[in-house]
Specification:
It is a single chain. The chain is an alpha/beta fold and about 250 residues long. It has a single domain, classed as Rossmann fold (3-Layer(aba) Sandwich). The protein is built from seven helices and seven strands.
């Protein structure tokens, strides 16, 4: 696709169907430094961050999905990035944080309140009724698969804040996402609120998931008693309807 032209295919919230096409096959190009993607259109980085900010502030159950590159703490830069991440999270009233520390499939046992993995990321989106989310610190090969699955079966507005080239299959994406750009996203959240965007969950703090409670994150009152907390991927049994997996013989 020629840069600057409107794409014939728009990357918008689904459900789009069982097998949505890869956006790149439909002519959606990756942004360059200083640019971003919004629904398949190349726009300025500022516009992309503001559109992402509006989605996270106004859509239901906005959730941050930090991946291993944010969570492992394998160098000082990662630790600094995590600090900036939490400062950004504080600007999204009512935001949830569901980490993706490990991509290895745990099918058929999944706790959709606390974990997302390559087999069925859409289950976590469905279960938590998430209508806007951010992927950050997620390996690109994993994000490519997951973003298409989410677009196929949910109405979630996906935002990919990528340390590399960005993602065509997200509704909004910005490349080369370093600490400075996390700060710019925080500033975009502050700016759109000052410009009149009213957060859907105004007055609320970070809403703790089971994982967030274990990690002692600040936020709203505990949503579960301590005895019911589930740490993502760490406990062999889950007390919900997916514990026994799917019945292959069911009609």
């Amino acid at each position: 696709m020629e840069r600057g032209k409107e794409p014939t295919y728009r990357v918008v919230p689904g459900p789009e169907g069982l097998l949505p096409p890869a956006a790149t096959v439909m002519g959606v190009a990756l942004p360059e430094e200083g640019e971003g993607l919004v629904e398949g259109r190349i726009v300025s980085e500022t516009e992309a961050l503001e559109q992402a900010a509006i989605a996270m502030l106004t859509r239901k159950n906005a959730t941050l999905f930090p991946g291993p590159l944010m969570l492992w703490g394998w160098n000082e830069h990662t630790n600094q990035k995590a600090d900036a991440f939490f400062e950004m999270a504080k600007e999204i009233p009512g935001v949830r944080i569901i980490p993706m520390p490990d991509y290895r499939p745990i099918y058929p046992k999944i706790d959709p309140e606390a974990v997302i993995n390559p087999c069925h990321p859409n289950l976590t989106i469905w279960h938590n009724k998430i209508e806007a989310c951010v992927f950050i610190g997620v390996h690109c090969h994993y994000a490519n698969i997951t973003l298409k699955m989410v677009r196929a079966g949910t109405n979630c507005y996906t935002i990919a804040l990528c340390a590399e080239a960005g993602h065509e299959d997200a509704m909004a994406s910005v490349p080369n996402f370093d600490i400075d750009k996390i700060d710019r996203f925080r500033d975009a959240l502050i700016r759109v609120k000052k410009n009149g965007v009213k957060p859907l969950y105004e007055g609320k703090g970070i809403v703790p998931t089971g994982w967030a409670q274990i990690s002692k994150l600040p936020g709203e009152a505990l949503s579960k008693p301590e005895g019911e907390l589930v740490q993502a991927g760490a406990t062999p049994g889950f007390s919900h309807e997916l514990e026994s997996g799917l019945d292959d013989t069911a009609e």
